[in-house]
Amino acid sequence: MARIALSHVGKVYDDGTSAVTDLNLEVADGELLVLVGPSGCGKTTALRMVAGLETITEGEVIIGDRVVNNVPPRDRDVAMVFQSYALYPHMTVRENIGFGLKLRKVAKAELNQRVEKAAEMLGLSDHLDRKPRNLSGGQRQRVAMGRAIVRQPQAFLMDEPLSNLDAKLRVQMRAEIGRLQRELSVTTIYVTHDQTEAMTLGHRVAVMRAGVIQQIAPPQVLYDRPVNLFVGGFIGSPAMNFLPATLRHERSNWVVQMGEHTLNVPESVLSARPALKELRDQPLIVGIRPEDIEDATIAGMPKGQTLPAVAELVEPLGADIIVYLALDIPSVEGTEGLADLASGLERSPIASTGGGSTVVGRFNPRTLAGVGDEVVATISTDRMHFFTHDTGEAIWDL
Question: Taking the complete model, does pTM exceed 0.70, yes or no?
Answer without folding.
Answer: yes
